[in-house]
């Protein structure tokens, strides 16, 4: 009976932990600059430097460089691609960004002009109602 309990504990508790530890070690061995990672504190950043000897990783978090122990890396969000692929992606993303920025500015101009027209219409309606109220109150006083 006790042997059965020990065997269940091994297969349900110890073995899955060993598997996770092995997967994490494999992930850390494949870590390289340019990889996007998330730390155990939920900090997102891009790997700038990996120091295997000291077992540390330097992350670029929007211009701020932070050094962490390798065990602090929870998961890799995306792997760094080769230099040619990243150049192609950067060129395509910059052209897509400029196209989307142009579309957004056109949309904002349309919404600004429609908002201005709506504001003018509501101002003229309120002015008309104010003048109607004034004339009604003037005639009531007489």
TrEMBL record:
GO terms for cellular component: plasma membrane. Residues 79-89 have a biased composition (Polar residues). It comes from the Bacteria. One of its GO terms (biological process) is protein transport. Keywords: Cell membrane, Membrane, Protein transport, Translocation, Transmembrane, Transmembrane helix, Transport. InterPro entries: Preprotein_translocase_YajC (IPR003849). Residues 79-142 are annotated as: Disordered. NCBIfam families: yajC. This is Preprotein translocase, yajc subunit.
């Amino acid at each position: 009976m006790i042997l059965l309990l020990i065997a269940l504990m091994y297969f349900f508790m110890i073995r899955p932990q060993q598997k996770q530890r092995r997967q994490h070690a494999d992930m850390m061995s494949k870590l390289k600059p340019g990889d996007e990672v998330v730390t155990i504190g939920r900090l997102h950043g891009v790997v700038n430097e990996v120091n295997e000897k000291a077992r540390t990783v330097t992350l670029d978090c929007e211009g701020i460089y932070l050094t962490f122990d390798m065990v602090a890396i929870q998961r890799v969000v995306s792997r760094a691609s080769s230099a040619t692929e990243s150049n192609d992606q950067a060129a395509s993303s910059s052209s897509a960004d400029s196209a989307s920025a142009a579309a957004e500015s056109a949309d904002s101009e349309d919404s600004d002009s429609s908002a201005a027209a709506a504001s003018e219409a509501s101002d003229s309606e309120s002015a008309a109602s104010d003048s109607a109220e004034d004339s009604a109150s003037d005639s009531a006083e007489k």
